[in-house]
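Worked example

This section walks through a single chain of length 353. The input is the sequence exactly as stored; nothing has been trimmed or padded.
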Amino acid sequence: MSSVVAPSERLAVAELGCFPVCLQWAPSGAFVAIGGDDGDIRFVDGGGTIVAKFRAHEGGVTALAWHPRTGELATTGQDQKVRVWTQVGADGVTWVAQEVFAAARCAVEMLAWSNTQRWLAMVVGKQVMVAMAGGLTDLNQPFTTQELGALASAVTGLRFTPSGKTLGAAAFGGVTLLDPVGQRTVKQLAWKGSMLGLEFSPDGTIAACGCQDNSVHFWRIASGKDAQMSGYPVKPNRVSFSSDGRYLATNGDATICLWPFDKKGPEGRSPVVLEGHASAVVELAFAPMVNMLLSGDRDGTLALWAPPKLKTPAMMHRMPSKVAALGWGVDAGQKQLCWAAADQGGSLLLGHV
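Given that input, the structure is written out below as tokens.
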């Protein structure tokens, strides 16, 4: 790897030996879990050491998600099965699985945990489902899976609201808000286009999606009022709210747009534009707790930002190939933020701030 701007001495590198499909930091921040195209889950600590590796699925892993409170890891793969993994013992490397669902015809494509309940949402084509278990303390309670309904088209975004009680699913026609307990639709946030992904603001008042028509659409959930930001040269398929909810970051080309979501809202206002990438941004994510942003582009350049005052990268680093996945965590032991980014060739870069 060669640095575009001299990186911090706090960077660490690991070689995964697979195509990394997805990654997410464990709730403790002690390691990041990476799902590979070989069906394995790898746990990598902040120093770049692979501390555990196990076969999760036959065929590639397609999605993974940590429960933020129980420490359970949900995975799904090309074998069409959904498993929830629980650590056994104190060695940190032994994990056992409970199979909570097996699809009949097509793979499960997305996973999302509730922050406050032991509920795991999943998507099979157009169908939204949820596996539900009891309280957060008894992890021996089994899951029961139920259907919440089919959307008009394939689901492209799946998120629980910050309260953890309502599930949002994006597809053609907008966002559907679902009640897992009542198994009913709470509200339909309608729009005639096809959605790409879904994010909720930290206070749960706004839902935002990139769209196939080269725009970003958002709704104020209470009123159902909607608006859009248009004019992107390509489809903005990544959106991320800052931890305080004041900015929404979007990709769409080599620049990143930060739309203001303060009390005035973005209507009739221009975004803060972050310039530094030379090719199209393909991944981005705001950090928890502070307004720092991580982004990766098609050429493998990773950038760390501290917007909105600083509009140029605080750090840039060149990875060997296109950035495939990135994410933030909170290292509780070291009391610091940590991040990780993986490229298509299996190189993993880790750092902390």
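What to look for: The radius of gyration is 19 Å.
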